[in-house]
Amino acid sequence: MEQLTGGGDSLLQLVTFTMGTEEYAVDILKVQEINRMTEIAKVPNAPNYVEGVINLRGRVIPVVSLRKRFGFDDKLSDEQSRIMIMDIQGITIGVIVDAVSEVLRIQSNTVEPTPHVASSLGTEFIKGIAKLEDRLIILIDMDMLIEKSDGTAMLQAAKVGQRSLEE
Question: Are the C-beta atoms of 94 and 100 separated by less than 8 Å?
Fold first, then answer.
């Protein structure tokens, strides 16, 4: 996570989003833009969590459902659903979330290490849990998500999608 230092304080800048009733966050520097849902072209033989590809101003971007990737029940998209365009280890991907909440700056000392039984998502994706006054926010390690996913499958999806857009 990007840490800002100033006067001895260490701040984390995060984009928060929801999936179901839980609140999550990612490093703001990973997020390029946030878009409303759009038509997603299906890609054959992609892993089940790869929804397909989108055409974003002439670029083919693979789109991943975080719900499916984390093993949550699927949910139809609605007016609140968003695709967060992110740069993760040099791969630009779209990540579908239920809703984007806010940009948040928190003190790094409010983040607790990941408990062993934090949630149904594997703890390898969790950087920590931020304890704020009235809520808990699970910090997602998007780099680890790509490493533990098949990053090449996402690149393949983008290539297949690019060919279908050119036809």
Answer: no
Give the model confidence (pLDDT) of 107-140 as tens digits.
Answer: 988 888 877 654 444 567 788 999 988 899 999 9
Residue 149's SS3 state is: coil
| Type of residue found at 165 | L
CATH number at residue 69: 2.40.50.180
Print burial letters for 75-94: b (CB count within 10 Å at least 16), e (below 16).
eebeeeebbbbbebeeebbb
Q: How far is CA 149 from CA 64, 102, 131, in A?
A: 10, 26, 28
Judged on CB neighbours under 10 Å (0-12, 13-18, 19+), 14 is buried
Provide the residue range defining the domain that includes 60. 3-166
